[in-house]
Amino acid sequence: MTMPIMRGRVAFIFDEINFDVDQIVGVKNIKITDVAELAQLAMQSYDPDFAKSVRQGDLLVGADNFGYGHPHYPPMKAMRHLGIAGVIAESFSPGYWRGEVSMGFPQVSCPGILGFVRRWDEIEVDWAAGVVRNHSQGTETPYEPLPQADAEMIEAGGLVPFLKRQAAQQREQKDHAHVPGL
Amino acid sequence: MGYTITEKILARAAGLPAVRAGQDIKAKPDFVLAYDFPGYTDVYFKTMKEDFGIERVAEPERFGIFIDHMVPTATAKEEELHINTRNWCAENDVPLFERHGIGHQVAAEVGYATPGAFVVHFDGHVSQLGTFGTLAIGLRRNVMEAFVSDTVSIRVPDTVRVNLRGSLRPGVMARDVFHHLVRRLGPSSCRFQVLELGGPSVAAMSTEGLQTITGLAMFTGALTAIVNPDPVRLDYALPRARKKLDPVSSDPDARYSAVHDIDLSDLEPIVVVPPTPADTRDLTEFLGLEINAGYLGSCASGRLEDLRAAAKVLEGRRVKTGVSLHIVPTSQELMAAAAREGLVSTLVEAGAFVSSPSCDYCFGRIATMTAGQRAVSTGTLNVRGRMGSPDSEIYLCNAAVVAASAIEGRITDPRPYL
């Protein structure tokens, strides 16, 4: 992947396994469509000062099977609005993973991440090297390579740009294959 | 080393001689299914035209659209969504199944569950087509790829094999088998993999029971579930099949990432405790807990064997005053069969509210619960707010438990009633 390194602080660690991301904004708020309003509501039951403490580029860390249940899009829309640049978890639930990757939101499966970071550590995901580095502790650990299409989708910035890029490539291949006069 | 049924289906769909788990491929789905829902189909239709310049789909027979949510409509906006869907299907010559029942069941009835076929949808419960040896995967929004191009980009999944042996005792149903699997294997045991059901007891299991188990596969983390099709399943699926394909099965020496054995004769009725489908417990731990509502229906349950179990429990008895029991057969075909058997009159005479097929009870669009209320349900899911207020509770269980609990107004063991 040719994506720039993703560097930020660990803004929060969700250490609950099978974490249901709808809890981030609360199920009663899940139908709110105004992202600024969602962002204000986000994390109220975990850390009321979250919105104030988080910075652009910060990252979230999760436990095993992050996103299990029946995940909706508003919680991570709120998180992106607050500046969160991606999620690194021990492992992900496929429904959540697909949903967020289709939004172009970086998700990194990294077994061992819970033991590798503390809250507010400065970390980075180096896509070219395939590692997560913890600058606060001077350590690094590999993450699981992404399926090719998922990596391309994140790189393209989401599903529609990915599909457009793919359609353009297919047109190009067709044009090359067609030699006039033969 | 042999191949799994999943590898064989995907190799054909990718136009390759063979594929292996872990390989990134582009595979052409034999069928692309969807139900109309805001933010999904309306977005696909618009994106196809506006972003990709696709005025008409090239092969309309590969598609199937269902209207099963918001049926019947309650607002003008919902009706407008359906009108938009009807128009798109008419313009594209794409088959539309409106009010036939819940799409995942109807898909089997009308032949999209072609053995050996590769099917995509956005909704993961389409996995139940796996009963017939069809590889059916829910891609969420990414199913848009199948609307704007011939193929979808996927990684060939690994397979977890679960062998079933023994036979179920009275009062224990397919729902119990599935939720027992979640308890035994864990809610992430099959993450990004295929759950393949096999073993000596599969042949004896009902097709409906297999549809229940495969349809819920996502709660083990699986992308889908599949069964190597046997004569019973082929007898159902082949005459209806929409495409001529050779059924395929896993080779005896196929490679599995894990193999588990489940003895069905050990199983007891379960409940799945809110607010997560991961929390399977013994029914006996929760007996006596008061309930306000019962729901028997959904794409997972609501078929004849569920209706029969409920009718057996409710025959000659009454739903407790103050408890609302909603019974929603999964499809029109099944509802008509239940009526012919006399099940509908038994249920109605017992005080059940029996409705025509619709997805709407399962997600609280109707029969909405308010704060503090509690339901027993055969719906797909028990997360907070699924059937109304985030402060209501859903206990998932089998159809007989729903019926017995509705009689007593509290969570009840159905076995004395059977």
Describe the structure.
The complex is a heterodimer of chains A (182) and B (418). Chain A is an alpha/beta fold and 182 residues long. Chain A has a single domain, classed as Aconitase, domain 4 (Alpha-Beta Barrel), CATH 3.20.19. In chain A, 33% of the residues lie in helices and 18% in strands. Chain A is built from 7 helices and 7 strands, in the order E-H-H-E-H-E-H-E-H-E-E-E-H-H. Chain A has a 7-stranded mixed β-sheet. In chain A, helix 1 crosses helix 3. Chain A is globular, with a radius of gyration of 18 Å. The mean pLDDT of chain A is 94. With 418 residues, chain B is an alpha/beta fold. Chain B has 2 domains: 5-15 and 25-243 and 253-263, Aconitase, domain 3; 270-417, Aconitase, domain 3, CATH 3.30.499.10. Chain B is 28% helix and 18% strand. Chain B is built from 12 helices and 18 strands. Chain B has helices at residues 5-14, 41-52, 76-92, 103-109, 144-148, 174-185, 207-215, 231-237, 304-314, 332-341, 343-349, 399-408, and strands at 24-27, 31-35, 63-67, 96-98, 118-121, 135-138, 152-155, 159-165, 194-198, 224-227, 258-263, 270-272, 280-282, 293-296, 324-327, 353-354, 374-377, 393-396. In chain B, helix 6 runs parallel beside helix 7, helix 9 crosses helix 11 and helix 9 runs parallel beside helix 12 (399-408). The longest helix of chain B has 17 residues, at 76-92. Chain B is globular. The termini of chain B are far apart. The chains are: A alpha/beta (182), B alpha/beta (418). Chains A and B meet through helix 4, helix 6 and helix 7 of A and helix 2, helix 5 and strand 7 of B.
**In sequence order, what are the helices and strands of chain B, one letter per element?**
HEEHEHEHEEHEEHEHEHEEEEHEHHEEEH
CATH H-tier superfamily of chain A: Aconitase, domain 4
Mean pLDDT of chain A: 94
Largest sheet of chain A: 7 strands, mixed
Please, how many helices of chain A?
A: 7
Percent of residues in helices of chain B comes to 25-40%
